[in-house]
Amino acid sequence: MSQEKTIAELLIENRRGVCGTTFLQHYIPRFGGHIFNLRHEKKWDIVKERCDLHEHKNTQWKYRLIKSDTTNYNVEEGQTYSFNLN
Ligand SMILES: [Zn+2]
Fold this sequence. Notes:
This protein is of the alpha+beta class. The chain contains three helices and five strands, in the order H-E-H-H-E-E-E-E. It has one domain (3-83). It has helices at 3-13, 20-25, 31-40, and strands at 18-19, 46-50, 61-65, 71-76, 79-83. A hairpin with a 2-residue loop joins strand 4 (71-76) and strand 5 (79-83).
């Protein structure tokens, strides 16, 4: 599974947002670049907000998908996954 697909699924499954530390737990330290791609290449509406999911000593950021229609995500050549985000 590609890292970008892992990020996409985390964002879809966690509608309150996904903390940066969660991406690290999935061994994706460079999640910022993947989120950039989802925003610009896939046109996903992803907002960056202060994490309110955990109690952090320092400021941590979470990423929340706010798009509310069906998004197609091309995982690999010839494979298209559809997610209903409603
Ligand atoms: Zn957090």
